[in-house]
Design a protein that fits this description.
Elements: E1 2-6, E2 12-16, E3 24-27, E4 34-40, E5 45-50, E6 55-60, E7 67-71, E8 78-84, E9 87-92, E10 97-102, E11 109-114, E12 151-154, E13 161-164
Antiparallel strand pairs: 1-2, 2-3, 4-5, 5-6, 6-7, 8-9, 9-10, 10-11, 12-13
InterPro entries: 6-blade_b-propeller_TolB-like (IPR011042), Cueball_EGF_LRP_Nidogen (IPR050778), LDLR_classB_rpt (IPR000033)
Organism: Urocynchramus pylzowi
Protein name: LRP1B protein
Length: 179
């Protein structure tokens, strides 16, 4: 799945399949300007920053069990969001510090370091990386991912895929080759 925020005409947090199909609104009320998103892949939670409402909130993948983690004026200066173990990590663009926030009580906030020009943060750790299993976009005998000549995008499951073409090309009638 692909998770993303939108604060155009109607602000929301959404998800869809990697090929763009099955687009679903997860959060579409009491949300104004969601600017950063983080996923807890193990427990299947979505965290986001709303800089207009000055809050960090969480829901499950279906948009249920919504909770506010922390709220306050300091949120409007946050950008980027990552989750790892018991903490959320973010960047304070006002003083360029990396912050650690306890994701269960929101009150344990600690500045960890200062970085010039930081706007985003990511946590890379082996336990957060999904195990690779066979999937529909694996290379076929001719070396094409999922048999697609340009792009292979996973669909509704790891066993389904959609072929797409780079800009300037159109998908052929076989659903795999680009012309």
């Amino acid at each position: 799945k692909l998770f993303f925020t939108d604060y155009g005409n109607a602000a929301k947090v959404e998800r869809c399949d990697m090929d763009g199909m099955n687009r679903t609104w997860i959060v579409d009320s009491k949300i104004e300007q969601p600017t950063a998103l983080a996923l807890d892949l193990i427990n299947k939670y979505v965290y986001w920053l709303d800089i207009y409402l000055e809050s960090v909130e969480v829901v499950d993948y279906q948009g249920r069990r919504r909770q506010t983690i922390t709220k306050g004026r300091q949120i409007r200066h946050l950008c980027g969001l990552a989750v790892f173990e018991s903490y959320l990590y973010t960047v304070n663009s006002d003083n360029l510090s990396i912050l650690r926030i306890n994701r269960y009580n929101g009150t344990d906030v600690q500045a960890l370091a200062r970085l010039d020009n930081a706007k985003e943060i990511r946590v890379y750790q082996k336990r957060t990386q999904a195990a690779v299993r066979s999937h529909a976009c694996e290379l076929d005998p001719s070396g094409m991912p999922g048999g697609c000549s340009h792009l292979c995008l996973l669909s509704s499951s790891h066993k389904a895929r959609t072929c797409r073409c780079r800009t300037g090309f159109v998908l052929g009638s076989d659903g795999r080759s680009c012309k």
